[in-house]
Amino acid sequence: MKRLALLMALATSFAAPVWAASVTVTGAFARATAPGSDTGVVYLTLQSDADDKLTGVSTPVATSAMMHKTTMAGMVMSMDMLGTIDLPAGQRVVLQPDQLHIMLNGLKQPLVKGTTIPLHLIFAKSPPEDITVPVASLAAMAPGG
After folding, report:
1. How many domains does the chain have?
2. Please, what is the Cα angle at 127 between 123 and 131, to 5 degrees?
3. How confident is the model over 38-65, as pLDDT tens digits?
4. Distance CA 52, CA 113 (A)
5. Residue 77: which CATH number?
6. Cβ(68)–Cβ(117) below 8 Å
């Protein structure tokens, strides 16, 4: 009986991970790019049912995707790269123009209004999410803009 219990314990220790949180992604959109630009931007809203963090992003349409925060110091605007974005349980975290956003660098193609791009989101506790992001106008401030 002890041997059976030990075998069961070992078998369950190799099982797939049980995710502790779940993140809902809404309102995603990218801005169309200006001619000749090799950078783009993505905005979205995240809400987790448990404390979590957005730890990474990627897309096949760019060589890199990074999380950034725009800040103003007097009349000087700057962008700071973030390693993670905290997702407090039950709170909406909005990535929006002139604040938190995902920067796409080294675009392999222009972002054209009316098209879509794939985006892969990685979280500390929740399973990764693959989403399709619609491309809005160059000046869009919200989805569909």
Report:
1. 1
2. 85
3. 999 999 999 999 999 999 999 999 999 9
4. 32
5. 2.60.40.1890
6. no
